[in-house]
Amino acid sequence: MARPESRRGGRVTPKGTRTDAGPRRPSTNDRHRPPLDDLGRRELEMLVADVEYCIDSHDDADLLQTEIAVSCTIGLHTTSNWNPNGVRAQVALAHAEALGTPAGLVIAAGMAVYGPAAARKRAGQVLERMRADGVAEAEWVLALGVVEPISAIRIRDEWDEHWSLVVNFVRPDGSTHDLHVGMHAFGWGMAHDLAVTTTAEMTARFEDAGLIAEAISLETARELLTSSLGHLDEAITDWWDNDHDLDADVDLRMLVGQRIDTLPSLDRRRGGDADDADATEHLADVVRGFVALPVPLGERNEHLANLVVAATMFSQACRDPDVLRWTPPRIEAFIEHFLPLWQQDDDHDGVDPFDEFGEPGDAFEFDEERLATVESAVPRWLRYAAEHRGDDAEVLEANLAAARSSLRGLRVKVTGSSVPRTAPKMRWT
């Protein structure tokens, strides 16, 4: 759904109000409201105008769209762990209570349901005071966020790389809807492609898609979604002022977060630092084992070292960070998108997995020697990984075929030709 548009004009009385607005008694908050600059006042004006638009456009037959609009408005106009802009929650709540209008009440109700966790309790208190003051409240406001999770499924491709999680919810009236969150296979499992739709629409979305659906517990779904959404929050914060197309995910961020909060939590102990230490030692063992192998003629040590570091860094950015686990989709992403832009520098920042390699000139120092080393070493790395992971012959052959195709594509992208320009330099000593 598109973001609510700021609608300028008079206040709209919502349909189905519980009571008429009476005189509002002064609040002690009025005396302690912090002063705002012009930008802050403008932000509050837009917040109120957008909420009035939500009230005016509400359809009793489509509560879900109203939830999307209200939660989006709250998310865009108030600061949070992912939104550095807008106004602070306490400022928005003080303004809402001072207004004493239906729009102010919806702001408080929206903050209580979808707002930052730290602000929800206070928002609930403001909401109750406004109700006690007799501020008009539409019946649909009482239904915001009132859902119960029923089931969850994981949808994946044949290589178990690309995941989507779908959680089904039911309202007290028996109507159902689904939450969909994609998990970026090669970007830390970051949430993307957020959607909240009717169950019928979600079913149609995956019909005949050739994907595999597996039931998972609600507790497991919450754990996966919480981690995935955390990575999205980091991305939104980093990219807020850039040109990345995150609009759809930003619009649904608050609603998705609220739905995740309704899921039960896993009750289990975690290994914490011990697990991290084991993973680090495993990675070191893998790298030591590979670099100890004989190096064929034509492979340059410096380019081989760069490739190994790139492979390990790329793996750590994958949803499944196992450095020995390789599949055709992962190989394609690594060779054709990550590797051309990889630059091993002092702080190992390298390249963002979401960067796109477009033109040959974008490649970092990809000369013939480096290409020759990559073309020789990648198949060796895949055989080494398959042997140590215990992959069967069919998996290895599929990976090698994917590597041949991607390496050929890489050479064409970098040099404009699939044929080596010169023979690689051989080292005889």
Mean pLDDT: 83
| Biggest β-sheet description | 5 strands, antiparallel
Order of helices and strands: HHHHHEEEEHEHHHHHHH
Would you report the number of β strands?
A: 5
Radius of gyration: 27 Å
As a percent range, the share of helical residues equals 40-55%
Mass-distribution shape: elongated
Strands side by side in the biggest sheet? 4-3-2-1-5
Strand content: 5-15%
Structural class: alpha+beta
How would you describe this protein?
The protein has 429 residues and is an alpha+beta fold. The protein is 49% helix and 9% strand. It is built from 13 helices and five strands. The protein has helices spanning 38-57, 63-77, 89-99, 102-114, 117-132, 199-206, 218-239, 247-261, 273-291, 301-316, 328-338, 368-389, 393-415, and strands spanning 148-156, 163-170, 176-183, 191-198, 212-216. Strands 4-3-2-1-5 form a five-stranded antiparallel beta sheet. Strand 3 (176-183) and strand 4 (191-198) form a beta hairpin. Helix 11 (328-338) runs parallel beside helix 13 (393-415). The termini are far apart.
